């Protein structure tokens, strides 16, 4: 009778969905371990979580902002894209619009675009009769434009500013302005560029600035000032904005006038 009662009790427990007491400890332990593993899997790379939550931005922008310390996780700055974060973490991006949007505010005032971001201009501006779009053209070999320009803005990569200046001068008016972004990572000697393509030495920054400013002035320009760009390069490099005014021929010395 006692065995039958025990079996009956066992079946009754199973019918109402309760595990027999003799088997529950090990099964409960396994269930707890499974739950912990599931929670652990919820942590992912910071850049992946950002891409999922901020789908309007590309991976390049996201990783650049993380590197610059503009991404906060639960109120704290995290500057490594591979940092594991929880799906429940609060992520904030303290960055402004993508950096390639800034030159457009200047380009709207010029007659022709000397940069390489024209494809980002609104279509109604791109097709405007006063805008000439020249694509698939190496600036070094640009010979002419529909008309001479009052203002040139340069944002170059993988080439020195001084290499394009001969072509730039040919399309500028005598009394005109040049605004250029100076990128030490593309102007310094290879031995001066550190790991990840970053130039960290302030002395190298100064050397590059002095050489570029002096070089541009040799083409008949006067430097009006130079500042550190408030926006760093994609890898976190410091970049600089320099403004030059082209000196009218009558103000040049005879030797300088011949060179222009």
Give the tally of β-strands: 9
Number of helices: 10
**Secondary-structure-derived class:** alpha+beta
The CATH homology group name of the largest domain: Vaccinia Virus protein VP39
Percent strand equals: 15-25%
What is the subunit organization of this protein? single chain
Low-confidence stretches: 1-23, 34-39, 101-119
Largest sheet: 4 strands, mixed
CATH level-3 fold name of the largest domain: Rossmann fold
Strands in their spatial order, largest beta sheet: 6-7-9-8
CATH architecture of the largest domain: 3-Layer(aba) Sandwich
Mean pLDDT comes to 74
What integer value in Å does the Rg equal?
A: 31 Å
Shape: globular
Number of domains: 2
Portion of residues within helices: 25-40%
Q: Identify the CATH class of the largest domain.
A: Alpha Beta
The topology string of helices and strands comes to HHEHHEEEEHHEHEHHEEH
Distance between the termini: 116 Å
Protein name: RNA-binding S4 domain-containing protein
Family: Belongs to the TlyA family.
GO molecular function: methyltransferase activity; RNA binding
Pfam families: FtsJ (PF01728), S4 (PF01479)
Keywords:
260 residues, alpha+beta, Structural Genomics Hypothetical 15.5 Kd Protein In mrcA-pckA Intergenic Region, Chain A, Rossmann fold, 2 domains, four-stranded mixed sheet, three-stranded antiparallel sheet, 10 helices, 17% strand, globular, disordered N terminus
Task: Put the structure in a nutshell.
The chain is of the alpha+beta class and 260 residues long.
